[in-house]
Design brief:
By secondary structure, this protein is an alpha/beta fold. 49% of the residues lie in helices and 19% in strands. The relative contact order is 0.13.
Length: 150
């Protein structure tokens, strides 16, 4: 029994060490945050990155729509029976109402249950207000970082 407790203690210490080491490595390589590595991506590159990220988070049937004329959705996906139309924005400034309107249009055009905007920044107050009214999910920089951390 004492040996069992010893192994449990060793396991707990090992897991704690791993988590601390992982956090330190991320701080060293991404001092401003892990999401900083996507800030320099161009639009289509960011869309493909987001599609792969969503797949790694359990989304299925993830599809990047064609570039221009996408009717407001850059990614179509499904998770647990819920269908999504997702507008991606890789900006250097806060994301405004236009992105919310695009996600709203994309949700309806592609006949999806949920519309969302996924971005590497934060949203303006007017975008948040519009999203509430139009029932569009807003996945901001913090949400993106949580997705990237796994």
């Amino acid at each position: 029994m004492a040996e069992y407790v010893k192994y449990i203690g060793l396991l707990v210490v090992s897991v704690a060490f791993f988590l601390i080491a992982r956090k330190l490595v991320r701080r060293f390589f991404y001092p401003g945050g892990i999401v900083d590595r996507v800030d320099g991506m161009e639009g289509h590159e960011f869309e493909c990155f987001c599609a792969k990220l969503l797949e790694s988070r359990g989304f299925e049937r993830v599809e990047v729509t064609k570039g221009s004329g996408d009717y407001g959705a850059d990614i179509l996906a499904e998770k647990e029976g819920v269908t999504y139309a997702i507008q991606c924005k890789c900006y250097t400034r806060p994301v405004g109402v236009k992105a919310v309107q695009e996600a709203y249009a994309g949700r309806d055009y592609y006949d999806r249950m949920v519309g969302a905007v996924l971005c590497n920044q934060y949203f303006t107050a007017s975008a948040v207000k519009a999203a509430k009214k139009l029932k569009i999910l807003l996945w901001d920089r913090d949400c993106l970082e949580r997705m990237m951390e796994g």
